[in-house]
Amino acid sequence: MKEQLANIRAQAIRAMEQAQDTAALEALRVQYLGKKGALTAVLKRMGSLTAEERPAMGQLANEVRSALEEALEARSKKLEAQALEARLKAETLDVTIPGTPVALGHRHPMYIALDEIKDIFVGMGFEVLDGPEVELSYYNFDRLNAEADHPSRDWSDTFYFDADSRVMLRSQTSPMQVHAMEKKELPIRILAPGRVYRKDEVDATHSPMFHQVEGMVIDKGITMADLKGTLNAVMEQLFGPGTVTRFRPHHFPFTEPSCEMDVQCHKCGGEGCPTCKGEGWIEVLGAGMIHPSVLEMSGIDPNVYSGWAFGMGLERLAMRRFKITDLRLIFENDIRFLEQF
Ligand code: PHE
User: Using a 6 Å cutoff on CB, does residue 310 contact ligand 1?
Assistant: First the structure.
């Protein structure tokens, strides 16, 4: 029995020292120390020994068990350390290797201009609003005081969705005036940029989809002087000090009096050139004092409150801002063009 124990010890330790992974090591533990293992089998036969032989053999068996457990533990630690080292080697990261360059996109010049415009107005206390591009003609026309036979209501000018001309792609951002009057507490100061749609052929200055920026102020004691002062300040911030503007009388159903504002041509400084079609000025917006009927329809008393509104053409402003001569360049999205701004 003594010899058997010595054999088990020698065999087991050799096998454990050679085990290549934790699974093999576990199999050895079961083989030698498990319930049906080699050592247990020897211990079971202790009963056949004499009372004198038993203690010494028991002690020897315990020594063998401890030796095997120690060998298991040592090998297991060694395998773990090897595994960790292998993993660290496989996962080394060289932080000095240059990264893969990512091609960044470029902001569109029109949105650069829009962000500048928003910043200027937000700085003056305006709130920026978003609104629907699919609009009821009720908001696009009726609530803006447009007569039943106003030419812009015509099918040849406007994209309608239904035969009764009830639902349409908005032809201006001005319906946002009405939405704001319906939803906001007075006084109101809003800016509402967005897309508008008209049945226009594409050329150097026209597109069936373009952008407007609507602005509106309603408070007590608001006058045309506030409108002109605000717009002149905005144009100087956008285009630089000394920017020249002019206001011409005009007609809109929802403002009275109404005007259009021009900015002096950046190409020729007012002399007249192809960019301004020989006129020396570029029209950038329509504006005016909000018509009393429009205020009344929205439940605002025109004897107490007054206000102004404007709608500017964003593409035209961006063209003036970045000295772009053809509207089509803004929509073609040629990267060689966009990257210049
Ligand atoms: N909505 C008008 C247009 O599209 C512009 C405008 C807005 C005029 C606000 C006056 C007041 O031409």
Answer: yes
Strand 281-290 and strand 127-128: the pairing is unpaired
How far is residue 256's CA from residue 288's CA, in Å, rounded to a whole number?
6
CA gap 212, 197 in Å, rounded = 10
List CB contacts of 38: < 8 A, sequence separation 6 or more: 8, 12, 31, 32
The Cα 25–Cα 302 span in angstroms is 93
What is the CA(287)–ligand 1 centre distance, in A?
A: 6
Atom of ligand 1 nearest to the CA of 287: 10
255 lines ligand 1 (CB under 6 A): yes
172: exposed, middle or buried (Cβ count in 10 Å: 0-12, 13-18, 19+): buried
Secondary structure of residue 256 in the 3-state scheme: strand
- Residues 30-65: tens digit of each pLDDT: 888 888 888 888 888 888 888 888 888 888 888 888
Q: Residue 306: phi, psi to the nearest 5?
A: -140, 165
309 lines ligand 1 (CB under 6 A): yes
Strands 188-197 and 127-128: parallel
Span 294-328, pLDDT tens digits: 999 999 999 999 999 999 999 988 988 888 888 99
* Residue whose CB lies within 8 A of the most ligand 1 atoms, among 172, 214, 295, for a mutation test: 172
| pTM, rounded to two decimals | 0.71
The closest of 111, 316, 305, 74 to 207, measured between CA atoms, is 316
Give residue 34 CA to ligand 1 midpoint distance, Å: 91
End-to-end CA distance of the chain: 93
Q: DSSP labels for 153-222? A: GSTTTS-BSSTTS-EEE-SSSTHHHHHHHHHSPSSEEEEEEEEEE-----SSS--SEEEEEEEEEEETT-
**Of 262, 285, 322, residue with least CA distance to 111:** 322
